[in-house]
Amino acid sequence: MNPLTGDLPLHPALVHLPLGISLVVPLLILALLLAQRRLQPAVAALVAALQLVAFVGALVAQETGEDNEESAEHQGVPEAALEAHEELAGSFTVLVGLTTAALAIGAALRQRPGTTPVLAIAGALSLAAAVQGARTGHAGGTLVYQHGAGQQAVTAGLGSAAHSPSADGGGHGEDHAEDDD
User: Model-level pTM?
Assistant: First the structure.
C-alpha cells in the first residue's frame, strides 16, 4: 500500500507539481528579465531551484505514469491515447530539463554582462514547457474522463465504502424515494 495515496495510483497525485510550477516559472523569468540587476543573484538561483523541483517532479511523474500504463490498457484505454499522452509527457520533461539547464546557467552568470540572452532563452523554453504541460495534462484528462483510465483503481481504492449502506442511501432495504413536494 502506498502511504501517500493508499491503494490509489501515485501518478495523479504527482503530476500537478511539475505542471503547476511550469505555469508559474515563465512569469518569474519575466520578472527577472524586467528587474535586470535589481534582483539579487539569489532570486535567480531560487527560480532555478524551483525549476529543478519541476524537472525532478516531471521525471517522477513520467515514471509513475509508465507504471500505470499496463493497468490502463487492461481497463480498455486505447493504446493510441496512452502513447499520445506518453509522447507529450516525454517532450514536456525534455523542455522542463532544458529550461532548468538554461536557468542554472543564467543564475550562475547573473552578475556578468550578457546574461539577458540566456534568461530570454530560458523564458522561451519555460513558455514552451508550460504550453506542452497544458497539452500533456489535457491528454491525461482525456485518458481519465473520456476513456475511464484509473476508474477501476478508484473504485477498488474505495473498497467496500462504495458499496456500504451509507453510500447507497441507508441500506435497510427501504426505498428512500424523495418527496416531490
Answer: 0.78
Asked whether the beta carbons of 11 and 86 are under 8 A apart, the reply is: no
27-32, Cβ contacts within 8 angstroms, sequence gap of 24 or more: 29/103, 29/119, 29/122, 29/123, 29/126, 30/123, 32/106, 32/119
CA–CA separation, 142 and 147 (whole Å): 7
Give the three-class secondary structure for 164.
coil
Residues paired with 6 in a beta bridge: 2
- Judge contact between 112 and 105, C-beta under 8 A: no
118-177 per-position pLDDT tens digit: 889 999 999 999 999 999 999 999 999 999 888 765 555 555 444 444 444 444 444 444
> Buried (b) or exposed (e) across 121-154, using 16+ Cβ within 10 A?
bbbebbbbbbebbebbbebbeebeeebebbeebe
